[in-house]
Specification:
single chain, mainly alpha, Alpha-Beta Plaits, Formate dehydrogenase/DMSO reductase fold, 3-stranded antiparallel beta sheet
Length: 526
Amino acid sequence: MTEARSDVSDSSDLLASVLKEQRTLRTPVALFSEEHESKSVRQRFSHLIPLSKPGPGEQYAFEVNLDACTGCKACVAACHSLNGLDEDESWRDVGALVGTRKQPYLQTVTSACHHCADPACSNGCPVLAYEKDEATGIVRHLDDQCIGCSYCILKCPYDVPKFNVKRGIVRKCDMCHGRLAAGEAPACVQSCPNEAIKIRVVSKSSETITSTGMLPCVFPSDYTQPTTRYVSAKPLPTNAQPADASRLMLDEGHEPLAWMLVLTQMSAGAFVACAAALWSHALDLKLAGFASAAALFTGVVGILLSVLHLGQPLKAWRAFLGWRKSWLSREIIAFGGFAGAGMSTIAAWCMSDMGAMRLTLTAAALAGLAAVACSVMVYVDTRKQLWSLANVSGKFLGTTLLLGAALCATVWEWSGAAVATWAIGFTLAIRWALSAWELAGFRNALEDENSAWHRSARILHERLRGQMDARAFLLVATGLVIPTLIAAGASSRWMLAASLALTFWSQLIERRYFFTAAAGSKMPGN
């Protein structure tokens, strides 16, 4: 019994000593916590971030030392972990710049949002989901405001905003503004083992921003005035290019937008054709009403389909808020007015008032053309090389006239109106003229390496050849075979209906590769 008590006592003493020792252990977590709270470690990153907030006319900016960047992607991993990003989401990218055989060069490049002095993402957002902090200059994305239209992705020439499919919104780097406010370095800055990334205070002056800082191979900085500075002890070759520059990547197809553009332009064109025929006394009230109803139907369907493009469709009603700066907001407002004008033509038709019909049709035609003009500017304002003013306006106006005349020709032929003959002839002429113009532009861009959209032409030729061939087949079918069959005595009603369907499909194919072959600019590696 005595021995048992002795064993228990020894065990109790051992347990007490172990617990006492455990309370004094210097665990890694405890050591890190103590060091982090110490003044010496807190100052470890002080030379990588400003010690004071920006003054008037200044803002925070990234500074990347290219000589110190090894492409280890520690910054990418830290950004992903600290911000709780999804598995396939990244706000910071690492790419590479390469030279030529005569001038060899290889340099890894890390990039994130440049927190531009004049951010294109903010200027284009239709719901004001971006804000540029007046004190720090940081461009923040307001997730709760976003409707997921992705227009900021098209607007940003550096491919910074990223669409999050899971949440149906766009997200981007915010320079870890919460950490900066607390005197802590952003995740990418703190994680870089070579201290290649720093936060600096720079002037917001456009002269200062556009004269220094950015890489020579990226989009010209006078557009958005990016504030990121890339520094190196050795000069960067002016002919350096991203390592992935030769890859012919397809952009997002934006199917709902392709359908919306083709349908709304067909609707606008039909109202224009109907108004012209009515003012020339080639139509009576009944025939004008039939064509107006068909035009209104296609336009409304196109507008409704556009909502499917949004990641947050229930918030679509807010899309007019950015009308002061965003062409997308203006387009949405314009199409709202167009739909209202189209409905007024139906009201005039129901009242059997020829005078009111002329006025409402004219108003609908003008509203439709204004809406198409806004659609043109939505894409021109992105400054993508393929989406030049001449190219986009030619395509959109051509589709408007072609499909509008084709729709009216079909409706009038089924109604037995003599004016259908004129509409058929106009449709055929526009079909061949538009195709010849598009083909000439494509061939010139493909053969000329200095062409602004040579890269897009190569994508069409090498990656989308099947779609180009399909359009060529449809051109022969609608521009040659069907007119020949009609002349030979085939039913013009059914032939015109088939021609309208095939022409619509042809324009839909074109509008899809209008997006996929856009070849937008980006940072190396994005």
